[in-house]
Amino acid sequence: MSVDDFTTLASRIVWSPKSRRGFFASTLLFAILPCPQYAQCRAQLCLNLQTILDAAKTDFREYQREKTVGPDVSIEGTKVPCQVSRWADNVPMYICYAEVPYLNAEVWYARTMAALTSLTPAWQFQITSPGEDHYVDAGPPDCEISPTDGPYIGQCPLHLQIAKQRGGTAKLYFWVNSLSSPYLLRHALVPAGKPVVAAAVSACDDFCETIKRAFEAQTNAFEDIHMAAPNEGESAATARLIGAGECKVSAARKYDSGARGKQFVCYWREASATAAESRFHELIARLQVVMPSNWSRLEENELDEPTGANYRKWHGVEPGGKHDVSLYVLGEFVGLHITTWN
Questions:
Q1: Cβ neighbourhood burial of 321 (10 Å; 0-12, 13-18, 19+)
Q2: Longest dimension (CA), the chain
Q3: Non-local CB neighbours of 135 within 8 Å, separated by 6+ positions
Q4: Cα–Cα distance between 297 and 281 in angstroms, integer?
């Protein structure tokens, strides 16, 4: 990458003062890593990213119609698989995920950013880098970053992030929303005389509103979102997530410590394990932008003590551990638990 290329990249990046530490670490990696001429797209990562961006222009029809797996975004020593999924409003997305050693993640992040900025010279990249994490939203100039809903026309279609985990690993996420989906809509127009913030609030979709209600209800053990029950067991929830077969409020208990609490629970049963995986990753993507930014995040394989079944779990925890959220996938089943502990 030449000095002129780097200057052009820096001029198109938006960051806040809080993110400067991470930004300079990122730009240092851009400067020291051997970087091929991505303008000619000779590297496999660049070629794959070009294919994905091109597919976004045609609504990912090829991958949806043929049910084929598209290109990944791996580099040497770092495998990052991808798949097509859908948002709650039916807009397709191409999402890639992996958990890898943190140093590998930094190299992947630098190379991916270098390729993307070369492939999309007209786009603006908005970066925040708290600590050793990086969060990137990219799209046409002045595209909107929406932390709670979407996607809509005018929102940044590309998101990239790495989040450091305990144990020296990092979670990698990369997704691109369809650029041509018939389900892409505009935000509701703001009535005359109304503040602009009203549009952002009204634009939050059903999934967003329900999750917001569930997180808010943690403060009073979900009293606001459950139907009256004759005992302290479980009851139907007045809040329900799109596509879920069942949502309820029930008692919660940790088998390792015996701690007790209350939880808002929703379950999905998909047509196949592959569909369940897609739902699992879609929910992770949606929760990532709704959860408070100071919550820790972790994905791991676990053993269910009562049944002995192995399952995959994605877990977000509030500092202090009073509240948390967990996603589970096992075969065709996906479960979401938002919990408050006594």
A1: exposed
A2: 70
A3: 127, 128, 129, 159, 160, 161
A4: 14
Instruction: Please state the pTM of the whole predicted model.
Output: 0.51
The residue type at 178: S
**Domains of the chain: which residue ranges?**
3-177, 205-341
pLDDT tens digit sequence for 182-207: 888 876 543 433 333 322 333 356 67
Report the alpha-carbon distance of residue 158 to residue 200 in Å, rounded. Answer: 20
What one-character DSSP code corresponds to residue 330? E
Helices 273-290 & 206-217, crossing angle to 10 degrees?
A: 70
- CATH code assigned to 205-341: 3.30.2030
Q: What is the mean pLDDT of residues 314-342?
A: 88
Angle at 45 between CA 92 and CA 57, to 5 degrees: 30
Tell me if 314 sits within 8 A of 260, measured CB to CB.
Answer: no
Classify residue 316 by burial, with Cβ atoms within 10 Å: 0-12, 13-18, 19+.
Answer: buried
Q: How far apart are CA 237 and CA 232, in angstroms?
A: 14
